[in-house]
Design a protein that fits this description.
With 155 residues, this protein is of the alpha/beta class. The chain has a four-stranded mixed sheet. Helices cover 46% and strands 17% of the residues. The protein is elongated, with a radius of gyration of 19 Å. Helix 3 packs parallel to helix 4 (74-91).
Length: 155
């Protein structure tokens, strides 16, 4: 379903229902796949994060995303960190360096506008991360606005 809204007050525009959450997600996904601008920006930012992470010799990273949206930026970072962890583990196998045998830890704090969308975002990222055995992942979502609850909910 495609709805084009105009500034005119036509009866068709006035009676059109707002897009559902699934429709918004599909539209954003299609736009992201078709637009090299977002992909290039995310690639560039992630590359800078990975380079800084590797040059610092660290095994833990905490990313704060002030508009996590659907979290499309983070799978490529997760994959890059996982590859970097695997490379450092294999290159250090001949050395006696216990730190390099530990998985990389990525903690992401994401600010969003809807509590349940943060939970869905966490589920997508956790599912993606499950294929990266040398990376530990934790997501904490914070609703920005009137509903100031955190995801995951406290027990």
């Amino acid at each position: 379903r495609l709805v084009v809204r105009s500034s005119s007050s036509s009866p068709a525009a006035a009676s059109a229902a707002p897009p559902t959450r699934a429709e918004r997600f599909l539209a954003y996904t299609m736009f992201y796949q078709a637009s090299p601008i977002y992909q290039l920006a995310h690639f560039t930012a992630n590359q800078a994060i990975v380079e800084a992470f590797e040059s610092g010799g660290r095994r833990r990273l905490h990313v704060v995303d002030f508009d996590v949206s659907y979290g499309f930026q983070w799978p490529s970072l997760i994959q890059s960190l996982s590859h970097a962890a695997a490379a450092s583990t294999s290159s250090s196998s001949s050395h006696d360096d216990g730190d390099c045998n530990e998985p990389v830890s990525l903690r992401t704090t994401g600010l969003g506008t809807k509590f349940d969308e943060l939970g869905q975002n966490e589920a997508r990222l956790a599912q993606f991360t499950s294929g990266c055995p040398n990376l530990r992942f934790k997501f904490e979502g914070i609703v920005d606005g009137q509903d100031s609850r955190q995801w995951p909910p406290s027990p």
